Amino acid sequence: MEATKWFVQTAESCVKELSSDAMQGLPLAVVQQRHQTGGYNEWLSGKRTSRMVLFLQQFNDFMVFVLLAATVLSAVLGEMLDAVAIVAIILINGVLGYIQENRAEQSLHALRALSAPMAKVRRAGKVEVIAARELVPGDIVLLESGDRIPADVRWLSTMHVVVEESALTGESMPVEKSIEAIADRDAPLGDRLNMGYLGTLVQQGTGTAIVVAIGSDTEMGKIAGLMKEVETLRTPLQNRLEQLGKVLIVVSIILTAIVVIAGIWRGQPILDMIWAGVSLAVAAIPEGLPAVVTIALALGVQRMIKRNAIIRKLPSVETLGCVEVICSDKTGTLTQNKMTVTHMWVDGAFHTPHGKMLAQGQSHASMLQAMTLCNNAQWNGGDAIGDPTEIALLAVAEQSGLNLTHVNAAHPRVYEHPFDASRKRMSVIVETSNGHHVYVKGAADELLGQCTHIQVNGECKRLDANQQQAITKAMAAMAKQAMRVIGVAHRTNITRTEWQDVTHTERKLVFLGLVGMIDPPREEVKVALRKCKQAGIRTVMITGDHAITAEAIAHQLDFMPPGGLVLEGKQLERMTDRELEAKVDHIYVYARVTPEHKLRIVRALQRKGHVVAMTGDGVNDAPAIKTADIGIAMGITGTDVTKEAASLVLRDDNFATIVAAIEEGRNIYENVRKVIRYLLASNVGEILTMFIAMMVGLPLPLVPIQILWINLITDGLPAMALGVDQAESHLMQKKPRGAREHIFADRLGWKIISRGVLIGLCTIAAFAIIYIPGASLGHAQTVAFATLVMAQLIHVFDCRSSRSIFHRNALQNRPLVASVVLSQVLLLLVIYIPFLQPIFQTVPLYIYDWMIVTIFASIPTFLLGILSLLRSKRKVTKIYKLS
After folding, report:
1. Considering only CA atoms, which of 686, 685, 714 is closest in space to residue 702?
2. Which tens digit of pLDDT belongs to each residue from 34-51?
3. How many Å apart are CA 48 and CA 523, to the nearest integer?
4. In whole angstroms, what is the distance from residue 26 CA to residue 32 CA?
5. Which of 728, 643, 670, 628 is nearest to 324 (CA)?
6. Which residues lie closer than 8 Å to 444 by C-beta, 6 or more apart?
7. CA distance 162 to 319
8. pLDDT tens-digit profile of 90-122?
9. Is 329 a catalytic residue?
10. Active-site annotation holder among 82, 147, 329, 798
């Protein structure tokens, strides 16, 4: 059956065939019925890896192959208990790895769900914003510049709608859309000018359309192969750790070869040396490191989501900790985005909006009517959807007694020039009984330049120099009070030939008045800005508002230091890139800027060596957001294309959320460093324990099954808990991390080696004290086993602090405490449970043994901790003497 060719039908027939209503939309009962029969606006994006395959992938690892070889060797030698134990540990390790990977995958799946597109739809006479997957055929959607088309649609009305369809049609040039039916039934996709397709981008204009296909029935859904690829999100850190793992494998092979050859040369039994080589290989490879780091990143991203920050690109987690400059929008980000009109300037005087304004004369009536008609917000009996500024204008008009429905019905819109960042205004042409009129609103200073007349007491008069000066003075007075100032104008009897050209439409206007509205600063932003200062992060405000308004907000929020500069867009345009670069470190407020200016600002800061975060919401902000080191899109007001270009999306459009994300990003990175520090120091201790013993002719201090147990229990469980550790109190008091800083920076490499060497030496010392030739080797090995386990479990608390174990509350991280207690309990079980003793080759320990274990296990952490405290006291004493 041939699919319906919607493009050959008229708009009216499409609406009729889909049993819809262009003005009211679908009834809710019909929507529910169509969900049941036709499903949702989504399709399966290829086959996901099955759980069984995901589980089996856990065993495709070099370390597992080494252990399997050890299993076969144990079985051949008749050591069946060892073989069974090794297989059991391999399986347990595989289950834990599967759980970790599955949890990480679920985190990323939740992330994608939160980033899913939304759609503005008219249903049951009301306009609401819903998830795009909820759309059904017949839904009436409202689209504007910056939106991704959420399904295949047939256009019903268009106002300068231009759509970029290259992803679907291959055409590089955007296409202007119309509503006229197309006669050619075989017209290719690119020529179907009355159609819109899922995933394509509205570059400019506004319009309404009816959904004709959803999910797999859309043109994009049919090209299923293009949608099957799921992006693998890996960070540079994960790639570096993978390389580190390969290096450690090579090192372990070399060490194993040296030890085995040296042992055989000294006359040791070949099979014993093979066992020793297997033990050393197991000790050298931190097989749990990649999995633990992955889960630390995934859980960190989940914490960000809870704080309203959605990470779209996982590598940006690392970059967040390097941010030095945040370039932030003002409206809605630093302020509440709850616009309230507080003053109006009409007939040469200020007025406070109230219910009697409509009765104050023709000038007030014209002003309120213009505010209502030149407006795209949807007003449903007090419930409004749209731009907060436009909602505030409608609220004043209704409070003043204007019947919004009646005004709109009596003045049907026939054309629109949408708001443009370069013009800083929008205009609409409406039909009246006296011909066609144009209404314009926008930035007052820009609009004033297009006006030749002014309305005073209902009469149209020539705009002279005195009146221009009075308007400019009123604008400045409002701006000084941190108001956003909007100018309103109109012109009567505009001709049809002037509609198409905006320069002809928006000229010779009659100035009606000014509107001053307040958008108060967010209270939580003040605290966030103080955090930024302490963290060495500079905040820069970028806004389209008047310079005086922007500067007033900057002083209210107290982030502009003495001597800080304010730069307007016009001044920026006159500056060369070199001149801007010379001043960019001293500019804290950019006012009256366009999105194109944002790109210059980002590049100037980057040329100065700064790591830059840039916020934005409009489609024209996308280039600057993509260029910035961290692009931040607004989740509420941001367009789909801006969100796609961004690394981070703010669900609440709040500056404080940016700072929270930076704090989380820093903490995630530090937690990864803690995990690396713990696991590698533990592995160094294990390697040295085995290597030194064999090189000096001692028996093996640990048997392979014990090392496997340590790597699984003592390394794995605490490492996972360490990966979700709380941030240190001074985390946001440190300067941003350098973008090229190595993972082992800040003496991390030294901490790993020094702690690892001490753990290894102390384990050997405890073994040597107990071991007496001819006595029970199992007793000494059990003491060495317990010492190594306890040393690592104490050391994990040292890893929580960048200084020492004495600088943090050990009980603060409850999951870590629980994992350490569990590891200790399991250690006691394998030592004292009779049926586990032959498996792990342990014997019961006595009080004397535990004294030796406790003393030697404590030395690595507490000795270096005391030395750290002494160094800190010496520094404080030196500073005190100098002061």
Report:
1. 686
2. 999 988 887 644 445 566
3. 45
4. 10
5. 628
6. 471, 475, 485, 486, 487, 514, 546
7. 35
8. 676 667 666 656 665 565 555 455 555 789 999
9. yes
10. 329
